[in-house]
Amino acid sequence: MGEKKPAIKYKYLNVDNVKYKTLLTKKYLSRKPYVDGDDKKVTAFISGGIRKIYVKKGRSISVGDKLLVLEAMKMRNDIISSIDGVIKEIFVKVGDNVSKGQVLVEYK
Amino acid sequence: MPDKQKSSDKPVKRKSSDLKRRMRDALKGGGSKAIEKQKAIGKLTARERIIAILDPKTFYEYDLFVEHAAKDFDMNKKYLPGDGVITGTGILSGHPVCIYAQDFTIAGGSLGYMHAKKITKIMDHAMKLKVPLIGINDSGGARIQEGVNSLAGYGEIFYRNTQASGVIPQISVILGPCAGGAVYSPALTDFVFVVDKISKMFITGPEVIKTVLGEEISMEELGGALVHSEITGNAHFYAESEQECFDQIKQLISFIPWSNKKKADSFPKKAPKSKKYKIDSVIPTDPRQPYDIRDVIKAVCDDSELMEIQERFAPNIVIGFARLGGETVGFVANQPLYLAGVLDVDSSDKAARFIRYCDAFSIPLVTFVDLPGYLPGVDQEHAGVIRHGAKLLYAYSEATVPKITLILRKAYGGGYIAMCSHHLKADFVFAWPSAEIAVMGPEGAANIIFRKEIQSAENPDEVRKQKVAEYKKKYANPYVAAAYGYIDAVIEPSETRNILIHALEISSEKTEVTPDKKHGIPPF
């Protein structure tokens, strides 16, 4: 007290319908908003490299069909289709490095 | 007569010149080039660090002549003085301690069989003598040439860290890389000190991450001092330089007991700096307004000296040591300045561990309460706020040290229970007149209780406001809880320090009988 402090830029946090004036932490601000999983999109479950692609755009796929190989932690993981459908788009090519959560294949 | 003595002295002298030569060789460490490299990045050498931490001229080194045990890969031709680690005993602020420091200038401070033997030997000493253990980490990791013997070495250290936990204080100082399995020794100890740009901790380094996952990140961003102070919570004290870090160690050691059977040093009573920290004016009465809870702690504790722990991690709760009437206490306080002081995954974890530390070392707990409840959000629920939040309930319920709670302003819902309420067997619960003990904030509660009336009203907003005001008047105070005896006394802020000191004094002989069990099963 007494000494001048630079003005703090407060934000608001809502808890039980009450808005509290406060500061938000870096970790709070960088949290990822929750998104509902999309059946039509196949995402990388781990960061890694694409080693092989079994399917082509427009092809019909059944549950259990191999889509591609994602290598991570020295393991070659077969990425298998969990639905029946037609490939709308393939977003990766062999040799690509992908991050966790990145969309690899989309169905129609 | 003098002649005779002279002749018998001779062989001893020769022996001692041999000792001097051997010592000279060993004390060279990794040689001038390696030492230069170490200095260039702001690092002291291992021996300099020990000397800087301890009281002047009190360090006694052991096992200086230990040699490494590696036989393969031409290692037998190499001389590694003391096998890359310095161990010994000394005096710190007048008390004995055991200490070791890894020497990065010698084979990168890598941990081999004898290196680990030296560390475990000094750890065993610390346990036998019941004195604190300080470990300075500066090592590239396992000595690959020694294979499974390095792994065995780490395992032996971890085992001793765990056995010593809660018996003697264990302090880890990270002054260089500390990677792979090596990180688990500090993680098992009580306090971890880091220094900006010097400390680096991670399980797998940037190179491995790049190779196996294709993710690129620098060492600093992956596991630098700031990351562990702000994000992971692995580090407890952050410093800009090694010297600042050593000063922090000395400050910490002044607050804590030297073993679980001893009491921390008593200091002369010192009044708070009441001109700087005015207890009557720190807190805005509107519970939605922020303030810095540390100013309240400083307004009541001796000399306004608070040694905060994990200052940058989960700042929505403040933990740290201070003194009341000359005796050490552990403060746990919600911090309305950050995230309105809510409890969440990180703050529960942070406070719970500190409470267990205080309980293990017989340090009384003083809890300041001002929180709206738990942080809402999918990320919190999915991150396990249930089991992490439970740690706090467990730690408070389990603690048998004197537990004194003061409710300053809001204490809503589960947050009220968790913050050392009478129901978790606090010895004393005090409240300021500004306290509001309620099941939730007035706005939320009124919306639920009077939902029908509000919805069916011609002017819902008007009715809502009216109902909120009604609820506030009736329940947003300490007297409903006091009527049930959940609050022992409603006190004026100006009385706080005297009452806390009194409560501590009369609880000094507190004993509590706990159920006979091997140990509980906390929600780790």
Textual characterization of the structure:
The complex is a heterodimer of chains A (108) and B (524). Chain A has 108 residues and is mostly beta strands. Chain A has a domain at 41-107: OB fold (Dihydrolipoamide Acetyltransferase, E2P). Chain A has one helix spanning 26-29; strands at residues 11-15, 18-22, 41-43, 48-53, 60-61, 66-72, 75-80, 85-90, 97-98, 103-107. In chain A, the strands form three sheets. A four-stranded antiparallel β-sheet of chain A has the order 3-10-8-5, with no helix packed on it. In chain A, strands 7-6-4-9 form a four-stranded antiparallel β-sheet, with no helix packed on it. The radius of gyration of chain A is 22 Å and the shape is elongated. By secondary structure, chain B is α/β, with parallel strands linked by helices. Chain B has three domains: 2-255, 2-enoyl-CoA Hydratase, Chain A, domain 1; 293-440 and 478-506, 2-enoyl-CoA Hydratase, Chain A, domain 1 (Alpha-Beta Complex), CATH 3.90.226; 442-475, no CATH class. Chain B is 40% helix and 18% strand. In chain B, strands 1, 2, 3, 4, 5, 6, 7 and 8 form an eight-stranded mixed β-sheet that branches. In chain B, strands 9, 10, 11, 12, 13, 14, 15 and 16 form an eight-stranded mixed β-sheet that branches. In chain B, helix 4 links the parallel strand 3 (95-102) and strand 4 (133-139). In chain B, helix 12 (345-360) runs parallel beside helix 14 and helix 16 packs across helix 18 (460-475). The A-B interface holds A 1-2, 10, 13-28, 31-32, 34, 46-49, 72-74, 97-99 and B 212-215, 230-231, 276-278, 287-290, 314-316, 336-342, 346, 372-379, 382, 412-413, 440-444, 447.
